[in-house]
Design a protein that fits this description.
alpha/beta
């Protein structure tokens, strides 16, 4: 298939200008495949380049290319295939074609190697599951363990600003929910442990142990804001290759960020820092008076439509 891509003589475009796209570009170079450009749904990315190559917006594809081969680096491959099909492009390849045997530890990328490995393995698993749909596979499950938070973000996308009396979620109910879900599915790529701020729940380590011990769960990602440092007895439950910390850096508000990252390094726990450089307006909870077509467009463009949430015993 790689030789077929090189023989066709039409432009090769990587769909997805993220960290996996960066790795895929390197794999293409190693295979002697010349990449014409990247394309992405995030229009703000078109103002920059990746690996010295231009990024174009998806809506500009039809005006710039009559035909092209696409290698998909986005994890949500079904969305990309559907989008390309709507635009009249039918020649695409999963990134697994080139990434499967690439040793990422030999190279340097714009993100820490732990996060690169996590992103690439997620992409491979999602693409494999799409190409072999007989398994009941979930890419990502958010599991809410507390409504409490150490920050007060305006218009929090997890709606924490609406709780009048936030509380920790019932630990027994959380465990029963994990059991029930895992009894029904074949595999989950990642459980995302969230709140609020998950470390507000002092029983977080019990949830972590249950997820680590579950063979159907590939990764556990803790989303934290860098304001709370886990205690020594909690950190012991997080020393596992399945675990990844995603730390949102809110600048001076993330007052324990340096202490937290030092602790994670000392205990050899993978982490990735997301620097907040602007505010994402997730819209208000109100009537927007959209017609059905507008509602469909909002859903199609939504970055979270493929995520599911486990909360209060419901999926």
């Amino acid at each position: 298939a790689i030789e077929n891509i090189k023989r066709k003589g039409i432009p090769i475009i990587i769909f997805g200008a993220g960290i996996v796209g960066e790795v895929l570009f390197l794999a293409c170079c190693n295979a002697g495949i010349k990449v014409e450009c990247f394309c992405d749904n995030n229009i703000t990315k078109t103002k920059s380049t990746i690996c010295g190559v231009n990024i174009i917006h998806v809506q500009d594809l039809k005006t710039k290319y009559k035909d092209a081969h696409f290698i998909i680096s986005a994890a949500d491959i079904k969305d990309v295939v559907d989008q390309l099909d709507d635009l009249g492009f039918t020649k695409w390849y999963p990134s697994s074609l080139l990434l499967r045997n690439l040793d990422i530890y030999q190279y340097q990328f714009s993100a820490q190697v732990d996060f690169v490995e996590f992103a690439v393995s997620t992409c491979l698993l999602c693409h494999d599951s799409y190409m072999n749909p007989e398994k009941l596979f979930l890419r990502s499950v958010d599991i809410i363990i507390t409504e409490r938070c150490s920050l007060k973000c305006r218009d929090c996308s997890n709606l924490m600003q609406y709780y009048k009396k936030p509380k920790d979620c019932d630990i027994e109910e959380i465990m029963q929910s994990i059991d029930a879900l895992c009894n029904l599915i074949d595999e989950v790529n990642e459980f995302r442990v969230i709140g609020g701020e998950p470390f507000m729940n002092k029983e977080i380590h019990l949830v972590m142990k249950r997820l680590i011990d579950e063979p159907k769960v590939r990764r556990i990602v803790i989303y934290t804001n860098g304001t709370i440092v886990p205690k020594e007895d909690q950190i012991e439950y997080m020393k596992n290759n399945k675990v990844l910390f995603i730390i949102t850096d809110y600048g001076v508000l993330s007052r324990k960020l340096n202490i937290l990252t030092q602790l994670l390094r000392q205990n050899n726990i993978a982490y990735h820092i997301l620097k907040v450089e602007g505010w994402s307006d997730c819209a208000k909870i109100m009537r927007h008076q959209r017609n059905p077509e507008q509602q469909k467009k909002v859903f199609t463009d939504c970055c979270a439509k493929n995520l599911v949430t486990l909360s209060s015993g419901k999926l």
